[in-house]
Fold:
Amino acid sequence: MNIPDLKLPRIVVIGGGFAGISFIKKLQKEPVQIVLFDRHNYHTFQPLLYQVSTAGLEPDSIAYPLRKIFRKNKNFHFKLAKVNRVDAEDKIIRTDIGSLSYDYLIIATGTRTNYFGNKSIEANSMPMKTISQALDIRSLMLQNIEAADRTEDPEKRRACLNFVIAGAGPTGVELAGALAEFRKGILMRDYPNLVENEMKVHLVEGGSRVLSPMSETASRNAQKSLQKLGVEVHLNTLVTNYDGYTVETRDGKKFKTMTFIWAAGVTGAPVQGLKAEEVLVAGNRFKVDRFNKIEGFDHIYALGDVAYMETPVYPKGHPQVAQPAIQQGRNLGENFKRMFRNKPLKEFKYYDKGTMATIGRNKAVVDVKKLSFGGAIAWFMWMFVHLWYLVGFRNRVITFFNWTYNYINYDRAARLIIRPFRRSS
Amino acid sequence: MNIPDLKLPRIVVIGGGFAGISFIKKLQKEPVQIVLFDRHNYHTFQPLLYQVSTAGLEPDSIAYPLRKIFRKNKNFHFKLAKVNRVDAEDKIIRTDIGSLSYDYLIIATGTRTNYFGNKSIEANSMPMKTISQALDIRSLMLQNIEAADRTEDPEKRRACLNFVIAGAGPTGVELAGALAEFRKGILMRDYPNLVENEMKVHLVEGGSRVLSPMSETASRNAQKSLQKLGVEVHLNTLVTNYDGYTVETRDGKKFKTMTFIWAAGVTGAPVQGLKAEEVLVAGNRFKVDRFNKIEGFDHIYALGDVAYMETPVYPKGHPQVAQPAIQQGRNLGENFKRMFRNKPLKEFKYYDKGTMATIGRNKAVVDVKKLSFGGAIAWFMWMFVHLWYLVGFRNRVITFFNWTYNYINYDRAARLIIRPFRRSS
Structure:
């Protein structure tokens, strides 16, 4: 695959998400060769995916070319490829573009959508883990509103205007809020045939509160904000089936909908080849020690969402969000530097900067330390933090301008059906 | 299809391009019902499509939601649908979402790519008439550069880095220039394995000069600028075959390439149903009188690229570009107003504001009246005019920011392979 042999330690990184790029950034000036594999040629800022889905932002605002991040590093190589398996004994990875030996292997492959084995949901619902899936949701949502506008069949019209989201984690909550705002800002003004409250947004959650990883105060505030926006929140409600038309729940509820978004779970996306029974724990995550080394393997590390590390403060592992991934990437990068200098390594310690979620215009919730607050201040903090973490000056400016424009005009400029979504069945 | 019957004259417009929207804009305050059909829910600013292809702009910069343009007009209806045929006797159009009667029918369906009956070119080349085709070109271009970066086979590498464009009209010229700038600004910095002059851009033209609709001075200037940028211009060279790997020309040239873009011709995209032998002239355009009425039909009009009108100054019809379309739309709109007021109608008279094309950074050519000039002034004029004609304040700001950013940084931020292009064969 055309990687020069440099007689330098070769570090192979699989996955250009938060963990992978934070790790590589720390090693840019080290005498190592770094080869990054990803199936996309860009880094995705996943926390803002829902804004691509709801026509607020275009992909180039939340995606950043991976080659560009590290273009100043002459010993960095990017390969657009899918890694099929690891051969740990020979220290080789097998990909769809050939094999490559490594000295150190960093697995930062993140998670994928978890359907919990439910085939009907997997076949018919819309997941939202990649930009292309987010664009599919955007197209489908707009196509269904167009279909509602032209049909004279009241039942079809209702199904087209019914939006059901499963899972009230940050993704589900933010998506539900954005859809409710779309209804308010766009539906009434663009579609003279439609009436605002004909469009319904249902948020269906198996647990007993929204945003369960956050504080109870945040959950309460978020739920109140959602309901104020007109989102119908159904707690303790487990979805059991979706045939493409009717969502069924365990307690017998039925929602007729043409748009069912599945944000109810993720599971690790580990690389194959390391014996599963030895290294994978619940949630398909690699069990790692305090230095992110996969237990039982030398030279193989896991970072971020796909890593499972027990610490005194987090005896059940860290939350699968951006911050632990970024911090683990940095810590491992620093540890590699220490290792090359024969210095003692540092255990990973997660510094919890807080959690936040936005619900809509002037509405967000923030937990920091023991504090929990909501409202406009939380919303400004949310915006500031997300702009701050976006990669690249340009993406920040474009996103900031779009947010300002959308805020002033109650608009979503990217409501474009560029590629109509067609179910592949 | 859920269109209210208002006892107002119903004007059905097919196509939301320059002609269609200019026409409707003139009638917003008239007591008429307007129904616009388009296969997309947005207006496309076609002159900047090539910037979407070459990763300079995202779709939302050059597309504008059609519903939004006319949202203040309560008697305006948009339908996302494909019009299959016209039944002129009964004054009905047949679409994939049902039939609708009209009092007046405006056909503004534009053109589609013309392969001149060549099946191999149609099957294997990349056309660029829609945003989704432009995104395909972007993906394919980036995929092929990635493939070149990883292959160790020198012949495959050459084919991946060879870009061939057929047709040196404005589209072909602008695309060739943008690809050459991509090579200069991105290739060398993002791809340490590749050498700048390994990437070749060939512009192949059947005629004897580039930009043949412009002045000879403009052609000369444009060709010089292209060559300075490293584009290889092949004049008097007709492409006869492309099997997906080798472009063959009538004079025996062969170009091995994985990316062959077809910008060598368009033909009218008329609506079916009006007897072809009576109304269509060469180039599949509807023969119209000086009021854009299709000859032989009452109440049916054609506008823009799909209309063919002979005038003393333009005895062979008007050029198929934005300005005649915009001006015809406006004139017809004004004539409808006059008609409703029993005033005499005005013949269409094309006011030629000039022609322009950009080649790259600080390089453009402009013909105005008898004047022809190039260089940085022409380039600034080109930018100003294109920003001016973009629909919407937001799209202008986003485009302007992206251009400024790209100019300063020699960058193309949207070099993202969101949906990999796969040949459907």
Q: What stands out?
A: Chain B has a mean pLDDT of 95. Chain B touches chain A through 52 residues (CB under 8 Å). The first helix of chain B runs from residue 18 to 26.
